Amino acid sequence: MASFIGIYGRAMADVVVDRGLDANRVSSELESVGNVLAESAQLRTIWDSPSVASDQKLSLLDALAKKLGISREVRNFVAVLISNRRIHAYSEIVKNAVEQINERLGIADAEIVSVRELGAEERRRLEDQVAKVTGKRLRVRYSQDQKLMGGVVVKVGSTIYDGSVRGQLQRMKEQLTSVS
Questions:
Q1: Entry pTM
Q2: Which end of the chain is more exposed for a tag (fewer CB within 10 A), N or C?
Q3: In sequence order, what are the beta bridge partners of 23?
Q4: How far is Cα 122 from Cα 152, in angstroms, rounded to an integer?
Q5: How confident is the model at residue 149 (pLDDT cuts 50, 70, 90)?
């Protein structure tokens, strides 16, 4: 990892923590800008080009910030990346910033996969259990996978908690084949 990635990531994390900003909102806003950058090669070229005047770049950023409804802090962060010609590493810097924000605030990103749509009460109970096990507040993303047959698979960071029927059958198969 280039050393500047951690420096910019840490700076954004400092702003979020020191000012008590909503980490979920900041992450969402950073992601929105990243999506626009990923979709527009022309925007990436303009923001990274030394031949385009700074005031034009920032004017374009201000228009985008207004359209996306992003906070002053996120707008200023992107402006610093543009001004210092680091916009080419936007996704890596944002990934680092979000990781640092999550670490400092005790937040873990979790993915919960189930065979069917879970109800609000089921989600709450499951999130409470996972939060208790991990000791962290969770930012959860839900998805469905019919191959699970039942139960859920929870991924928090690099740790996977497999409570699916498919996982239980696989573990039984491994036990039966290792006994012989």
A1: 0.74
A2: C
A3: none
A4: 11
A5: confident
